[in-house]
């Protein structure tokens, strides 16, 4: 199974965070929805899933629209603490998420975040491609994507594509040799 990690980075290289003063860019969110639809699934951490599901962050139209951007998509939530969340599959490890989606017949798994989930997949060498949307903002005290939290290591990547998404967002797509 091919695995694709999707993330938004800041112009100064941090893992982008969002807040009411700095919400995610519409173009990046639309791209994530398109990538999830193409894959038929996405993997996400519990905290990120709860943020995505927060009624204060989702428009009223999306709350009542059963044909929303993730209708018919297999959503896998990684959680060490929670056993069940209605409407999604909950697993305890990246390997179990990939195994579940593979058993469901998916050819690609989209890894949607957050930073801990991304780093877990990267550290375990479970990522084939990355899609980085570079947002036009600098952030201080940011998070990082790491292949090893404790030791210096590097892994070469190969550029597959580079394109503008609009609103000064640039998308970079890289292959990672496993």
From TrEMBL:
Keywords for this protein: NADP, Oxidoreductase
Signal peptide residues on this chain, from the entry's feature table: none
Pfam families: RibD_C
GO biological process: riboflavin biosynthetic process
Domain Bacterial bifunctional deaminase-reductase C-terminal: 25-170
Cross-referenced Gene3D superfamilies: Dihydrofolate Reductase, subunit A (3.40.430.10)
GO MF terms, alphabetically ordered: 5-amino-6-(5-phosphoribosylamino)uracil reductase activity
Pathway: Cofactor biosynthesis; riboflavin biosynthesis
Protein's UniProt name: Dihydrofolate reductase
Species this chain originates from: Paenibacillus ihbetae
